[in-house]
Amino acid sequence: MNLPKFRFVALSVVKHAYVPLAMAAHPRFEPVVVADDPDQPGWVHERNERFARQFDIPYIRDVERAIADFDAQVAVVSPEAERHCDLSVRAANAGLHIVQDKPMSNRVSECDRVVEAVERNQVKFLLWNRNYLPALVQARQAVESGKIGEPYAIHVDFYFAKDAGPPKRTSKPKAAPINWLERQIQAHSDGSDGGVGHDPMGELKIEGIYPLAYIRMLTGVDVQRVFARTTAHFHQANVDNDIEDLATVTLEMKRGIVGTLCIGRIGAASHPDIGEIKIHMLGSEGALVISEARPEVSIYYRDQLATEYPHLRIADDNNYQLAENLAQAIDTDGDTILNAQAGRDICATAQAAIDSGRSGVPVDVS
Amino acid sequence: MMTRLALIGGGENAVSYTSVAPRLPNVAFVAVVHPKPDVAQRIADSLGASITTNSLDDLLDRHLDAFDAVLISESSDSRANLAIRSAERGKHVCVSSPLAPSAQIATDVINACRFANVRLMVAHSLRFMPSQQAVKSALTDGKLGEPGLLRMHRWTEATGESDARDIVMSQTVNGIDFAIWLFNEMPTEVYAVGRPDYVQVHLGFPDGGMALIDDARTLPSGDGYFSLSLIGSTGAVYADDHHNRNLLFRGGNPSAIETDQGQFHLMAQLQEFVAAIEEHREPATTGADSRAALQVAEATVASLQSQQALRLVGGTYELA
User: Fold this and answer.
1) For B144-176, what is each residue's pLDDT tens digit?
2) CB contact set of A366 (below 8 Å; sequence gap of 6+)
3) Chain B residue nearest residue A287, CA to CA
4) How far is residue B187's CA from residue B207's CA, in Å, rounded to a whole number?
5) Helix/strand/coil for B316
6) Residue B153 near chain A (CB below 8 Å)
7) How many helices (H) and strands (E) in chain A?
8) Do B200 and A258 touch (CB under 8 A)?
9) Is A192 in the same domain as A58?
């Protein structure tokens, strides 16, 4: 069957470009233009232009004009985190379906704007996630088929074994605090710029979406209350900007389900690969222990670069399946695997955890 | 110097001592106390002990000069009383963890042993397991930097009757002890959630350290599961049953079979206890350690009941 293609506008491509690249790789999506606001700084325009050149498409410094002139049906939104929601709202108001990079936002109120705009304009919204990794698909199948009975507890470890600039306590006396945005721009080359934006963000905001999306998918319930510990344990940039790079969160969810999240940017020395990412799940009839990295192949050889992960993830179909998920949602007027409301609730959970970490008391997720 | 031991009780370690005893040349098991004579005799035969009795009182009254120290492997409710009575008669004491059903009673045991000038060691098996010894060594050797996050899962099969308080005071308390041992200080924050057969504890330590421990008694009949990871400022360790399991194929899905860590932890415990006696020093795992863990365990129970976090204020835990 020859299904129609969706033309997409890439609204700002300032991070790794993995989201627009993934969408462009799917046969049903076609990039037709890159767009951004004219008052953006030079480094933003530079990255946008680079992506446009890669696909031989125009770069238009006017978001609304690009949407109007290029007959796009989908917006792929990946600017700095604090601009995510605003661009998504503008795309929704123009009637475009949306694929948005994580985090959904650094503010819950911005997420609320997206939820409202998506609902009002009756468009589809997909927040980028990792729920289609092979191990997650396997976990979901095991849970949904009742292999562990009724789930009652879930624990996720989500460590990124990446460095993030100078280690903690290595700055010289009287040295100026590390500027967050400058550090993120510099980090673009090694891919550790997940928190790119003007406002500093800790790991709960930058990466929390992934494990919290796992928890939501596998339990099917919302988080209601959290208790958290947060600290800047590894990186001077996090110390200087008063944001966490290590956190633990107790989660209390609907139906009496409980859980925990361990999350951190723990440094490249702490794991041979991208980091230990595991799911432990308990149910009334059994339990499940899942390594997110599997299946993988181990590759070791002489003169291997220290920056090369020796364990290669294989059969990763996440990008294709996410794009396919959006296409099907549009085709069938169905829902996506992580819609705007779910993304908003995850953002609220991360914010409640940050608040709990600062106050030392449990915090309700609102 | 030979240290002569009396084994009190027929706990799970009783049979295990059989394989350990021949490997400790400076240790002799000389007596076994068990309320059932046939069980006492069977254990004594396996350990090469010549004395069997059905009570500690009988042992102390009739064979006081025949032994130097007691290994108390009884239920947690009776351990403290047995330890105090042994100490009062001048016997060194090694008792299973937890030392007592409460921090207050643990204090009574500590005071009794101090007054009698005998050694008191609490056998925290978790600390002496080969995998945890490796974790601790990596930390003390400076490979991991400052400890930041300890994660521990311990899942066992369902027992039919469970009570969250009982899980905390008998099982989670050992994980708490391990966390205090690694961070080398008391947690300043305690928060816990759970249900009758499951508990998860969240501890906060000074300078940002944190620990998550969960204990489940809900697995189907069969093997349990243990997993531990410690994230430090310059490195991390992962001690995990998931990693340490092999596969057995007998049709259908293969079984995962655990690789056994043997009885090294028992041997290490006994060696340490005997060395502390011989060298007239405190053992590596003291009564004070166990009391500290019990204090945090009691705060954990209070958190479960109140559904609030507790904070360490002036040496006691209060609602935050």
Assistant:
1) 999 999 999 999 999 887 899 999 999 999 999
2) A348, A352
3) B219
4) 10
5) strand
6) yes
7) 12, 15
8) yes
9) no
Nearest to B208 among A233, A267, A287 (CB): A233
Q: Residue B20: is its pLDDT beyond 70?
A: yes
Helices (H), chain B: 13-20, 37-47, 56-62, 76-88, 103-116, 125-128, 130-140, 164-167, 173-183, 264-278, 287-306
Q: Are residues A211 and A97 both part of a single domain?
A: no
CA distance B125 to B121: 12
Q: Which helix (H) or strand (E) holds A89?
A: helix A84-93
Task: Write the pLDDT tens digit of every residue in A289-323.
Answer: 999 999 999 999 999 998 899 999 999 999 999 99
Identify the CATH number of the domain in which residue B201 sits.
3.30.360.10
Look at residue B12 in the predicted model and tell me its pLDDT.
Answer: 62
Domain final residue, candidates A79, A100, A123: A123
Q: How many domains in chain B?
A: 2
Averaged pLDDT, A233-244? 96
Tens of pLDDT, residues B30-73 = 999 999 999 999 999 999 999 999 999 999 999 999 999 999 98
| Domain, as residue range, for B140 | 127-261+294-319
Q: What is the pTM of this model?
A: 0.95
Is B75 within the bounds of a domain?
Answer: yes
Note whether A231 contacts B309, CB cutoff 8 Å: no
Of the pLDDT bands very low, low, confident and very high (cuts 50, 70, 90), residue A100 is: very high
Given a cut of 80, whether residue B11 has pLDDT beyond it is no
Q: Give the Cβ contact number of residue A43 at 10 Å.
A: 12
Which pLDDT band, with edges at 50, 70 and 90, does A257 fall under?
very high
Give the residue among B178, B176, B177 at the shortest CA–CA distance from B190.
B176
Final residue in a domain of this structure, among A67, A88, A123: A123
Bridge-based pairing state of the strands B310-313 and B189-195: antiparallel
- DSSP H or E run through A225: strand A223-231
Do B115 and B172 sit in the same domain of this protein?
A: no
Does the pLDDT of residue A335 top 80, yes or no? yes
Write the DSSP symbol of residue A335. Answer: -
Range(s) of the domain holding residue A108: 6-123
Judge whether B168 lies within some domain.
yes
Chain A residues whose C-beta sits inside 8 Å of any chain B C-beta: 152-153, 155, 157, 159, 167-168, 227, 229-234, 246-248, 250, 252, 256, 258, 260, 262, 264, 266-267, 269-271, 276, 278, 280, 282, 284-287, 289, 291, 360-362
Are A229 and B155 inside 8 Å of each other by CB?
A: no
Kindly report each contact of residues B135-141 with a partner whose C-beta sits within 8 Å and lies 24 or more positions away, as own/partner.
Answer: B135/B182, B135/B228, B135/B230, B135/B237, B135/B239, B136/B181, B136/B182, B138/B235, B138/B237, B139/B182, B139/B230, B139/B232, B139/B237
Find all residues with CB under 8 Å of B81, minimum gap 6, and list them.
none
A168-220 residue pLDDT tens? 988 888 889 999 999 888 888 777 788 888 899 999 999 999 999 999 999 99
- Distance from the Cα of B41 to chain A's closest Cα (Å) equals 40
Question: Does the beta-carbon distance from A248 to B212 stay under 8 Å?
Answer: yes
Q: Which residue has the higher pLDDT, A184 or A349?
A: A349
Together in a domain, B79 and B206: no
| ipTM score | 0.94
Q: Which residue type sits at B274?
A: V
